[in-house]
């Protein structure tokens, strides 16, 4: 699995769960939402985390190159929990066009608002190239660390 830079943990208590994604089919996204809700439940800000993960995974599946062979992993979804934050991470195979950046879509456009939505609900987000992959993350402060 590629290295993904994330915000530094604020405590020693840390738990990370990962879910590989082997298909670019849209059905992967609701399955991932259910996995995150189950993994974090009950949790502070779970709706924000699920929403951001949905947007990040949708972007990854839309913009990543198609798998070369059946059974190749196309993305990896991870949720990290600490005492003061949840971090959702999505890795996807990188193409030359895979550079996450918020857009300013036309009012009637059906796409192009995902990263702006992530920025609105997360305390911080970012991305980094990672050995042929691109890693996009969003951080959500919980408890006393909320914004």
Automatic annotation (TrEMBL):
Molecular function in Gene Ontology: ATP binding
**Has UniProt tagged this entry with the keyword Kinase?**
yes
Keywords annotated in UniProt: ATP-binding, Kinase, Nucleotide-binding, Serine/threonine-protein kinase, Transferase
Membrane spanning residue stretches: none
- Flavoprotein among keywords: no
Per UniProt, residues of the Histidine kinase/HSP90-like ATPase domain are 25-127
InterPro entries xrefs? Anti-sigma-factor_SerPK, HATPase_C_sf, HATPase_dom
Which Pfam families does this one have?
HATPase_c_2
Gene3D superfamilies, per the entry: Histidine kinase-like ATPase, C-terminal domain (3.30.565.10)
Where is the signal peptide, in residue numbers? none
Q: Where is the composition biased (Pro residues)?
A: 1-10
* Region described as Disordered: spans on this chain: 1-24
User: CDD domains from the entry?
Assistant: HATPase_RsbW-like (cd16936)
Protein name in the entry: ATP-binding protein
Q: To which species is this protein native?
A: Streptomonospora wellingtoniae
